Amino acid sequence: MFIAHKKKRNIESEEEYLDQLPGMPTRFYYEELRTATENFNKKLGQGGFGSVFEGSLKDGSKIAVKCLEGLSHIKKSFLAEVQSIGSIHHVNLVRLRGFCTWKSQLFLVYDFMSNGSLDRWIYHGDREHVLAWERRKKIILDIAKGLAYLHEDCRQKIAHLDIKPQNILLDNDFNAKVSDFGLSKLMDRNQSQVMTTMRGTPGYLAPEWLSSVITEKVDVYSFGIVLLEILCGRKNFDRSQPEESWHLLRVFQKCCEQDTLLDIVDTNSEDMQINGTEVVEMMKMASWCLQTDYTRRPSMSSVVKVLEGGTKVESNLDYSFTDPRPQVNNSQEKGSTPLLPSVLSGPR
């Protein structure tokens, strides 16, 4: 009885904390969301933080409702990060419309993205249709602009920490929007790096994660992996490939060394093959983003400038993407555990 009462009191204090936060988005009533989603009937997907359901509000606007289990266990710091995401707006970030607390559940309400996540459109065998090169270029630029905004234009720097195709959503016109900030980390503008526990998805994790000292450049690395997947039309780890080609990063390194990058341009798209020379130029951008030493990676605003034709990719690059020995500079801890290629490019 005492435990149940204490749990209820904790939930109430969490709710009071939410109400006191300045700049929080709209608070929805549970019944309002239950009606909007037809009793949470149409599931759009499920991730590590909960399930997502499609719904429609009374004004006719479509929404996606994410249900997070166990509100009483969610730290205030996480709620503060949700508050921060709710108060920022950018055309290439999925808008957080509001939230709802009910019993031990927290619901987050987002704009609905009719074309779903990017992974549905770029992986051979998974995709519904093959995206043309011009559309892929626009999606790549959209992602870069969204990340540049998070890193450089917000009041506090925001490192997303889980950039992958499943977290890039596409609207009706295939405009790409970065989503799912459940793992994001707020950084003060004067912070060059932060200590944090490893988080993210295997295959997209930058080498410096093993030192637990990270910067927003971990997002740049993840963007580089996503960029490769878009250009090659395959997953970064794919057992349907011959064994020597399971790891896309290893294949990419080999092709860089042998100057055979045209061989890995998406073979399931005639348009990508026709524009192969331009696609290979874009692969040089991926190489820059995938530098093992994070200080040699570009900022996301520099990536945007290159994509818009305002500057060039750095020419003096290290192509040892799968070297298991981590690069140690003065800002990293010496003696950190080596990151094996299987971790760098492992399955999801």
From TrEMBL:
Enzyme class: transferase
Chain sites annotated for binding ATP: 66
Domain of life the protein comes from: Eukaryota
Entry's Gene Ontology molecular function annotations: ATP binding; carbohydrate binding; protein kinase activity; protein serine/threonine kinase activity
Region annotation (Disordered) ranges: 318-348
InterPro entries: G-type_lectin_kinases/EP1-like, Kinase-like_dom_sf, Prot_kinase_dom, Protein_kinase_ATP_BS, Ser/Thr_kinase_AS
Pfam families in UniProt: Pkinase
Domain Protein kinase: 38-322
Keywords: ATP-binding, Disulfide bond, Glycoprotein, Kinase, Lectin, Membrane, Nucleotide-binding, Phosphoprotein, Receptor, Serine/threonine-protein kinase, Signal, Transferase, Transmembrane, Transmembrane helix
Known catalytic reactions: L-threonyl-[protein] + ATP = O-phospho-L-threonyl-[protein] + ADP + H(+); L-seryl-[protein] + ATP = O-phospho-L-seryl-[protein] + ADP + H(+)
EC numbers for this chain: 2.7.11.1
Localization per Swiss-Prot or TrEMBL: Membrane
SUPFAM superfamilies reported in the protein's UniProt record: Protein kinase-like (PK-like)
Family: Belongs to the protein kinase superfamily.
PANTHER family: G-TYPE LECTIN S-RECEPTOR-LIKE SERINE/THREONINE-PROTEIN KINASE SD2-5, RECEPTOR-LIKE SERINE_THREONINE-PROTEIN KINASE
Protein's UniProt name: non-specific serine/threonine protein kinase
Organism the protein comes from: Helianthus annuus
